[in-house]
Amino acid sequence: MTELRRRRDETRSEECWRIYYGDVHVGTIAARTGGPRDEAKWDWKCGFYPGIEPGEHRSGSAETFPEARAEFEAAWQALLPARTDADFQAWRDAQALTAWKYAMWEAGAKLPTQTTSGVSRCFCGATIDIAGTDRHVLDAHSEMRTA
Ligand SMILES: [Zn+2]
Question: What are the tens digits of pLDDT across the range 56-95?
């Protein structure tokens, strides 16, 4: 059975943990900054998109990190039974497409949607059109899923 793991998000100044289920980023637990002292100190969000509709995502807040973690885990256990492999795959595919767009941008290449002909050349050399972009990325650049 896949366990939840957490990884510190070093890009944030406040303490923030990204929660992973396998390779899928399924939520965050973060210290709240600012605000009155009597407010709860930790916010958590559970859900991923695409894969779980935003209306199904859950969130809450707690006084302590262990409480936030326990609430997060309970929320995840409620969401997990309805998840299918296709839900997780949808998230991985979206990650690959985003990473690929950044790689195209860094390579100075245009996306097919940015050309008048609707045809462009991938940084790998392949000719791509608008309809075939997703298929090309997922077939030829699937390693970008975890980038
Ligand atoms: Zn390519």
Answer: 999 999 999 999 999 999 999 999 999 999 999 999 999 9
9 CA to centre of ligand 1 in angstroms: 30
* Measured distance CA(141)–CA(99) in Å, rounded: 10
Residues 92 and 69 in one domain: no
53: three-class secondary structure by DSSP: coil
- pTM of the complete model: 0.84
CB-based neighbours (< 5 A) of ligand 1, an ion: 122, 124, 126, 140
**Span from the CA of 104 to the centroid of ligand 1 (angstroms):** 9
> Do 30 and 46 form a contact (C-beta atoms < 8 A)?
no
Q: Cα(11)–Cα(85) distance, rounded to whole angstroms?
A: 30
Q: Say how many domains are in the chain.
A: 2
Same domain, 11 and 76: yes
